[in-house]
Structures are given as C-alpha cells and as structure tokens.
Amino acid sequence: MAVTIKDIAKEAGVSKSTVSRALNNKPRIDEKTKKRILETAKKMNYRHNKLATSLRSNKSMVVGVIFPGFTTSHFYAEIFNGIEDYCVNEEYGVLIGSSDSDTEKEEKIIQLLEERKVDGMIIAPTIGVNIDYYKHLQKDNIPFVFIDKYLPEIKTDIIKVNNTDGAYKATNYLIEKGHKKIVFMSGPEYPCMSIKERYQGYKKAILNNGLEFSKLIKAEKYVFNQRKSGYEAMKKFLKKDINFSAILAVNDSIAIGAMRALREANIKIPDEVALIGFNDDDILKYLQKPLTTVKVPKYQMGFKAAELLISKIKGNDINETIVLDTDLVVRNTS
Amino acid sequence: MAVTIKDIAKEAGVSKSTVSRALNNKPRIDEKTKKRILETAKKMNYRHNKLATSLRSNKSMVVGVIFPGFTTSHFYAEIFNGIEDYCVNEEYGVLIGSSDSDTEKEEKIIQLLEERKVDGMIIAPTIGVNIDYYKHLQKDNIPFVFIDKYLPEIKTDIIKVNNTDGAYKATNYLIEKGHKKIVFMSGPEYPCMSIKERYQGYKKAILNNGLEFSKLIKAEKYVFNQRKSGYEAMKKFLKKDINFSAILAVNDSIAIGAMRALREANIKIPDEVALIGFNDDDILKYLQKPLTTVKVPKYQMGFKAAELLISKIKGNDINETIVLDTDLVVRNTS
DNA sequence: CCAATCTGCGGTAACGTTCCCTCAAAGCTC
DNA sequence: GAGCTTTGAGGGAACGTTACCGCAGATTGG
C-alpha cells in the first residue's frame, strides 16, 4: 500500500541499505546518490514508518504522560505545555492518559503506555496505586519521573515544588499581618504529598509563633471539581460558627470555591477574612478581588521533567529530586 | 531482553502461533493448552509489544489529537475528556499535540502523528494551514475528524456546535431586554470559522430587528492569552467613548477579560453594560458576577468525535457534519 | 609498490508480532 | 468404513525498518 524504502530503492536503482543511509543522514554514502534518493523519496511521497524503526531499534520516540486530568484547573495544562514544548523539540511524541486520580485507571494507563513501548513516562501518581506497577517499570528498565506528586515508596526522579516553604511563607505573611486564627483549608480531596507538605509548612509557621493550628476543613470524600468542593466545604464550615480571620487554601481552585461561599455569606474579603490560594492560576488576576496566592512555576516543572526524562532515556543514570521555589504573590484578598 | 512470545513458546513447549492464539483469544486452540500458556505468560511477566502487532496488522490502536492548546480555557480540556473516555474504553491510546494555532507547528504535528502511524486524527485545525497536508492524509487513507473548527476547503466529518444559532439566541435575548446598541466582541484573535459563525448569528438578530450592528473590537494581532487580550481590547475600546449598552463576547475568556476592564473603569454590570460570554466555562459560576453565557456541550463534542472517528477507522464510510445545540444560560451579567 | 585504510554500496538477518498454509488426528455422515 | 469436516497445532513468510557483515575499488603511506 504505502510506499516503503524498498519501493524507493527499486525506483532509484539502489539497495534498501543505501536508501536508509540517505534518509537517516548516515555517513558512507556519496552525496550525489543521496540527493537522488531524497528526491525520488519526495517524488514518491514517501512517509517514514516509525513503527518499524521503533521495533528494530527498540526506541519508540514517544513518552507517556499520566495526569489526574486537565479540567479541574490550569495547573496540569500548564505543566503539560512545558513537557510538550521540550518533547516536540526533541522529536518525541506525547502519549497521554488521565487517571482522574483513580488508582485502577492509573494502572490501566500504565499498561497501555507500556504496551505501546513508550521510552519513558512522566507521572503525577495517585496515592494508593498498586506500587507493583511502578516496580515493574523499574525492573523493565523503563525510566519515569514523578512530577508534582510522588510515591514515597518508589525511588525515582522527582520534580516538585517547595510546598512546605511556600505554605510557610504564606502563613508567616498572614501572621505578620496580625492574624491569630488561621485556618488551613484542604477541601475534600484524596490524600497526596503536596497537600501534606503544604499543611506542614502551615503548621510550622503557626507553631513557631506560638499560635494554635486551627481545624482544617477535611475531606469527607474524593471529588473532581475542586471549586465546587471548596465551595461546599466552606459553606459547611461557616455553619459551625468557628472564629477565624484568615484562610490558607491548599490550591487556587479550592480558594475560589471558598471565596464564593464567603461572598454569599456576606463576609468581606479581606476585611473580615483574608484568603490565600496556592499555584497562581492565570484566572486569579481576573477575579473581582484578585487572589493572593503562592506562585508555582508550572511550565518550568513540565519542561524540566521532560528534560530530565529524556536525559535518562538517553542513558544518563541520574537520580535526583529537583525542588523548584515558590513565590508569594500578594494581591487583594489578604 | 524483554520476554517475547517465542520465549513463552519455548517454555510452554508449543509454537509461537499457538501462543499467539492463546493470548489473543482466538479459536482453534484447546482450552487446557490455552490456560497453560496464559499461566506461563503471567509467570514470565510477559508484556505484549503492540509495536510489533501494529507493524504486522497495520493498526496502531492510537489516535492523534491536535488542539490549539489547553491553557487558554477549559474548553479544549473538556473536549479532550470526552475523547479520552471514549478512546480508553475502546483500547485506543491518545497521542496529542498542541498547535498553538501556529500553522507550522500544526504541519509538524501532522507529520509526527502520521509517522507514528496513528489510525486516525481528531483536529481543531488552524485557518491558514497548508491544506496539502490534509489532502495527503485523505490520499493516504488516514481518517480524520474536525472538531469545533474546520477548513471549508477540506471535505471530511465535522463535529461542531450551532454557533450561529447560539449567538442569535443571545443577541435576541439582549434585544428583548431593550438593548439597542450591542457590540460584538471578537477580541484579538486569529480567524476561525466559529468566530465567523457567531458573528453571523449576532448580525442576523441585529438586522432582523432593524438595529445597527455595532463595531466589533477587532484583532490587531494573534494572541495566546485570550483573557488578557479581551482585557486590553476592552480598555482600548472604552477610550474611544463609543455609546453601547451590551456586549456579546465571542467566548468566555474574552468576556472575563472585558469584565475586568469594565470593572476597572467603574462601569456597572449589568446596569450600565450587559455582558454575555460563550462556551460556559466552569469558572463562570464562581465569579462575583456569574456570567451569562451560551452553553456548549464540550464533553459530548469530544465523545462524539471519538465515536465517529473510531467508527470510520473500523471501516464505516460516513461523511457527516454533526451540529450540536447550544443553550443560553442567563446569570447575573445581563 | 604492496599492505593497510577508507569509501560506497549490497545482501541479509534481525525486531516481535500476526497471518496464511499445511497437516495429522479426531469426529461426523450416510 | 470411506469420504468429509472440524479441531488443534506447527512452520514460515511478512510488516518496514535498521544493524551488521562483506566486498570491490580508490586512496594512502612508508
């Protein structure tokens, strides 16, 4: 059906080997024959079949990406941008799967990617996933990099952000502003390392200043739409009539949800309650009260992860944890 | 290196063919041998190599997706969700590329996907792209489906939304509310069919009611961040001191940008100016003034596109344009 | 000037599957 | 029980590449 190097070879009157040499810019070929071959290839509308190359050379030139999903916020979308930019530049394709933070889906996607022989993976893993899958990947020598989240049991490269420090800075800032009752808001969510770390940073600042770390609004179930869950958790929390003057939310989406609940309860931000988010979603600037937040270098995380992974694919036996810094961005809610 | 069916065959004392039959649930094999083979496969930690299968059977079980990008809004992210859900269920992988609405990038991605022998593609094409690439796909018998956007020159299946009707409904609603000076806001953006259609719907409603279709804020250049461009276009527009009482924005992101500019200019929404967006991004509900908009069934678009594409891959020679309906969602800005 | 190296190219075996053909043995029909 | 179909299995080609080996002829060096 499709035209192959064999067809070109016949047309140009040379052997397959020579055609391959011409197409792949290899040495040991006369410039003139090379030119002639490339021309006939173009004329015959030849398309390289990378499947065959992959099979032979044991390199698919595809990396797999597993994310919880793209819809809850721009967070992973921006990380993905960074990954894609680096990969496309290096001629890698990107095969993607959303886990929806569902361990079974994640396991299924790992298998799908492995069967398609991706050269490596970038993963934001879900806590609770069967770590045997990751151990298998290691045994099968398929490099992978964790991004944003990670599994403590699995030793591999990690690209993350200094969550503890970010939350510490934000909390300290609130304390300096005179707040005594600061609530950490985690919203209904599945467990993950980032949340834990952010909570630790918050707690550290609170304890350093001799304050009480106030009750956090805790997950009762696992929810996709974080804005909605933040909204509902805050509504519930307000009914309890607890005294507080500031909130540090674990991410922007939850903060936006909380903001809506506070607004509907006629609580003035920041006069009555200060609010700080996390991640610095682009949308924050467009809110009526632009949200104070902790900025996370999302694009860079993705870019660096891809860089690291492809370096590993190329044989560099690195094993490191890259921790990127955060910045407190003060806007109008604090 | 990795264990192959040959290894299993040796271990189980059968031939490669028999192993293949066992693994693929094919007939003409004894239940007992099948069971034995499956067990040894599991024991040996066998991983199917789909690359080899693809090469042999000429089916990669991968579909390619080309979108402008994921970051400007949730629009494509939600479409992608629909695509992925359908594809994963049908055992297809999803290879993705962002064009950033850059024709050269789009052409590069088409080639990348074609070389990886995807079985089909779902594309939101960029106007101005060299249509030869698409003609080649057709000549090479690689099915593809346009989604959201399309190229009039290329005859293929299209999944879209009734943009004209949506804009018509929104404009009519504004007219019924008594608005006489309604501005259509397209924001700085590259040309695309959806925008044209939405503008036509707007114009039709205006003309039907004997009004003047007021100047639209026009693109001066091509911009990634639509919120930002909407914001800046509106700031510029306000300086011109033109009389208007309502705006129909071509999408929610631009509307959100415009909203910010109006707010900063102390113009009350909806009292002084009514504002309607398009698409119904989830974020709208969380704005201080939840935005009136035209709801687009994004997830369904993606799901249907995948369904259609895979049906074509399986040999059904369909050629249709599916037009999904929109709904006007009235909130607090109109 | 003869051995050693280099250049340009061809032939063929992989890579891991599936598909097609063959073939013996068993089961069926009348 | 002779002819037919069905079942279970093996052998090898093929998918489109690349890797490796070989081999003339040209070039180099002491």
From TrEMBL, chains A, B:
An MF annotation (GO) of this entry: DNA-binding transcription factor activity
Q: Using the record's annotation, list all stretches that form the HTH lacI-type domain.
A: 3-57
Q: Is RNA-binding included in the keywords of this UniProt record? A: no
SUPFAM superfamilies annotated for this entry? lambda repressor-like DNA-binding domains (SSF47413), Periplasmic binding protein-like I (SSF53822)
| Keywords noted in UniProt | DNA-binding, Transcription, Transcription regulation
Protein name (Swiss-Prot/TrEMBL): LacI family transcriptional regulator
